[in-house]
Design brief:
Helix content: 40-55%
CATH topology of the largest domain: Rossmann fold
Oligomer: single chain
Number of strands: 14
Radius of gyration: 25 Å
Number of domains: 2
Length: 401
């Protein structure tokens, strides 16, 4: 009886050629695991293709709600952004895919796991650190680190030689990854950091030039840091993200062009479209500004930076991430309210902020002097704060004498 390997399968260029490669080089039965995180593919066609290229079994699981509620929304509540711009769409999808791939392998009695990540990228780390955390006894097969293929052009040649149909071509050479949260674009003209993205590179969002000539307002409601409504309509997580994606995309919101530092030490260039995520991150940030106490808010910014780094580096299944989640959760108990945004040709402005837990008080912030704040108190406050500065100044005077 031959051994079994479970392959994280998308039906894209890399994983399409990996099935016959695995069968030819390992003689394993290949089980193709397809995790639906909202990539928008025709899953029936993906399954058919896997069988045609040699899979002995194909398993499809709908992971969309789990992806949003257990991975995306915790990162949203944490405020996690990598290197100022990247909202971590691909990074957040990898741990949920790896988790279910491992579960399939254990159920099916497989001895190995396989993925189509290159030896230069972050995804190999994300998948394999998850494997090690969840099932260290399983062998890992990473074809890109073993075969003689060196480029996407080589992969296309291999596909043609073995009669494997692929959607990529020498004219459409971009590597893309899509889910409910975003779509990423790498390769092609983007490999030269001096090149602007081609208009055809963008897939989800309109250009500012093609966006409507009038603003569109959208109100996003949160409960304890989790988005729950759009324009007053309560929605389940999938419907909510799909709706804000649609609204933001037609208004040219959510494009990012980024030169980033990969975990392996290479600088890479990618373009990302995260339309709805950009709205949710902006609205959540504004609600926190209204409801979080100053020192807590400032400290949470440090946590957000670390959280984003952990996600990007593939360190999801770690005690540190779990501990940070516990901290973040404690900060979100009063993050309930509604933020209204105005969208216009790629720009976002704030229309209104409302929350029953708001710490903003007009009797304190107004220029009109009220009883809630005695201006005379400021004199002593400033003198106490300035005591170290005065002491240093007097010391310098004495030395100079």
């Amino acid at each position: 009886m031959s051994e079994k390997v479970v392959l994280a399968y998308s039906g894209g260029l890399d994983t399409s050629i990996i099935i016959p490669w695995l069968k030819g080089n390992y003689s394993h039965d290949v089980i193709a695991f397809v995790g639906d995180v909202g990539q928008g593919d025709d899953l029936d066609a993906v399954v058919e293709k896997a069988y045609k290229t040699g899979a002995s079994k194909v398993i499809v699981e709908d992971l969309r709600e789990e992806f949003l509620t257990q991975y995306v929304f915790p990162a949203l509540k944490a405020g996690a952004v990598y290197e100022h711009k990247y909202l971590l769409g691909t990074s957040l999808a990898r741990p949920v895919l790896a988790k279910h791939q491992v579960e399939v392998a254990l159920r099916e009695g497989a001895s190995a796991l396989a993925h189509g990540c290159t030896g230069k990228g972050n995804d190999q780390v994300r998948f394999e650190l998850a494997y090690q955390a969840l099932a260290p006894e399983l062998k890992v097969i990473a074809p890109w680190r073993e075969w003689t293929l060196k480029s996407r052009e080589d992969c296309l040649d291999y596909a043609e030689k073995h009669g494997i149909p692929v959607s990529a071509s020498r004219e459409k050479i971009h590597s893309r990854d899509r889910n409910l949260w975003h779509i990423s674009h790498e390769g092609g003209e983007l490999e030269d950091a001096a090149n602007a993205p081609l208009p055809s590179t963008w897939q989800l969002t309109r250009s500012p030039q093609d966006a409507p000539d009038r603003e569109e307002q959208v109100a996003i409601g949160f409960e304890k840091g989790v988005p729950v409504s759009v324009n007053g309509m309560k929605l389940d997580p999938i419907a909510l993200v799909e709706l804000v994606n649609e609204i933001a995309a037609r208004n040219a919101v959510g494009r990012v062009d980024l030169v980033e530092n990969r975990f392996v030490g290479i600088k890479s260039r990618g373009c990302y479209e995260t339309p709805g995520g950009t709205l949710l991150v902006t609205a959540h940030r504004e609600l926190e500004a209204l409801c979080l106490e100053r020192d807590l808010m400032h400290f949470k910014q440090h946590v957000a930076l670390k959280y984003g780094e952990l996600v990007y580096f593939g360190l999801w299944f770690t005690p540190l991430r779990e501990a940070l989640d516990a901290f973040v959760e404690s900060t979100q108990k009063n993050i309930t309210g509604t933020i209204k945004l105005s969208l216009y040709k790629g720009n976002i402005s704030i229309v209104s902020r409302e929350s029953e837990h708001s710490l903003y008080r007009t009797d304190l912030s107004s220029f009109t002097m009220g009883e809630g704040y005695d201006q005379k108190d400021a004199e002593g406050f400033i003198r106490i704060l300035g005591l170290p500065a005065r002491s240093r100044a007097r010391s310098r005077e004495e030395v100079e004498k």
